[in-house]
Write a structure and sequence with these properties.
- The chain is an alpha/beta fold and 395 residues long.
- The protein is built from 13 helices and 15 strands.
- The structure holds pyridoxal-5'-phosphate.
């Protein structure tokens, strides 16, 4: 039986039509399938491989850690050097109030932990989130997801959740002294790259401060340089009370985190003790890989080029079938008339060796979130193939 059939028979599936490409190697911005066919990777594992696949510094750090130890004890009991070194480096690159890192095993778990921390710290229960937001697939994170389509089959979900419209100034009045936290993506990714309006995030920050509500910004997808600054919130002049990290945090290994001020974070240590616990959060190999990737991101000054590469993509993505291009750094949504058209284009591009997909809440938009160091030559090749595919649709 071939690999594809074994995959379909024995690996849990998430849809009735998985892509089923059998990728056997990935390096830099390229991937290869079992037949030796090459793909330019335009989605970087959905914003995970920000410094590309298998950067030598990351591979080296993983190998070194393998020689010391793998898992030794559930998270939080032992001093583990990779966790400490990475937490120090992360907090050195964050505002001073974000000085304590709680490691998790995934982005969804970071959302869960932050929601619990906010409830515990404020002694309030209401949580506010936004329509078309994605914060993960576990039940707490699903409860604040901004889409009835994905929620309805799993109700009842968490009580006390209120959903507002992103970028709506008036609705911020719904944040009150009852609200434990507001959870927002700094830039809504799965909405098809929805950027906050000038001053809206500031107004959100102000309302949270006035009501004693914790502001949780989710940078699981948009952090680590994706939008052209190390953290997206820097471009809006706000500082969250809790920051959610994941995806690129682990440099290609599984890792998530929520980051807060030590005083806030300490409320998880008592009443009850062990307020949030996990086995694999901050896995030493993931922390070693993430730290190495973070150093590469900064040392190779990859973020400096993000806005130029965004401009290059935008200059080459012009075609009558393209309705709109939403972008913020190297988070780009190319909008077509409907999902069916987009899906045909995506399939044709994959056939042509360009790996891409669509957005959860913008299924008519093609996703471009490549490694941040994608060479300009690959951008030109990818955009030419996109335009060629679109031209073929016109005839
Ligand atoms: C903005 C955002 N938050 C949270 C998550 C959940 O992270 P994970 O899939 O690691 O649980 C994702 C994943 O796509 C995300 O994009």
């Amino acid at each position: 039986m071939n690999q594809r059939q074994l995959f379909l028979d024995h690996v849990g599936q998430t849809s009735e039509a998985p892509l089923c490409l059998n990728i056997v190697k990935a390096e830099g911005t390229k991937m290869w399938d079992a037949d030796g066919k090459e793909y330019i990777d335009l989605i970087a594992g959905i914003s995970v491989c920000n410094i590309g696949h298998r950067h030598p510094a990351v591979i080296d750090a993983i190998k070194k850690q393998l020689d010391d130890y793998l898992h030794i004890m559930v998270y939080g009991e032992l001093v583990e050097n990779p966790q400490v070194a990475y937490a120090k480096m992360l907090t050195d690159h964050l505002p001073s109030s974000l000085n304590s890192v709680f490691y998790t095993a995934s982005g969804s778990e970071a959302t869960e932990g932050a929601m619990k921390l906010a409830k515990r710290f404020t002694n309030r229960t209401q949580i506010i989130s936004f329509k078309n937001s994605y914060h993960g697939s576990t039940q707490g994170a699903l409860s604040i997801m901004g889409s009835e389509y994905w929620q309805q089959a799993f109700r009842p979900l968490l009580p006390g959740i209120v959903q507002l419209n992103y970028n709506n100034f008036e609705e911020l009045e719904n944040i009150t002294e009852q609200t434990a936290c507001v959870v927002a993506e700094t830039v809504q990714a799965e909405a098809g790259v929805n950027v906050p309006l000038n001053d809206w995030l500031k107004a959100l920050r102000k309302r949270c401060t006035e009501t004693g509500t914790l502001l949780v910004l989710d940078e699981i997808q948009c952090g680590f340089g994706r939008n052209g600054s190390l953290w997206a919130f820097e471009q809006f002049d706000v500082v969250p009370d809790i920051l959610l990290l994941g995806k690129a945090l682990g440099g290609g290994m599984p890792l998530g985190a929520f980051v807060a001020d030590k005083k806030t974070m300490n409320s998880l240590t008592h009443d009850p003790v062990l307020g949030h616990i996990n086995t694999f959060g901050g896995h030493p190999v993931s922390c070693a890989a993430g730290l190495a990737a973070f150093k590469v991101l900064l040392q190779e000054k990859m973020i400096d080029e993000v806005k130029n590469k965004e401009k290059l993509f935008r200059s080459l993505l012009s075609h009558p079938l393209i309705k709109n291009v939403n972008s913020f750094g190297l988070m780009i949504a190319v909008e077509f008339s409907d999902f069916e058209t987009n899906k045909k284009i995506i399939d044709a591009l994959i056939e042509q060796g360009i790996f891409t997909d669509w957005f959860l809440f913008a299924s008519n938009s093609l996703r471009i979130v490549p490694p941040l160091n994608i060479p300009d030559a690959d951008i030109s090749i990818a955009c030419k193939k996109i335009v060629d595919v679109l031209n073929a649709f016109l005839v």
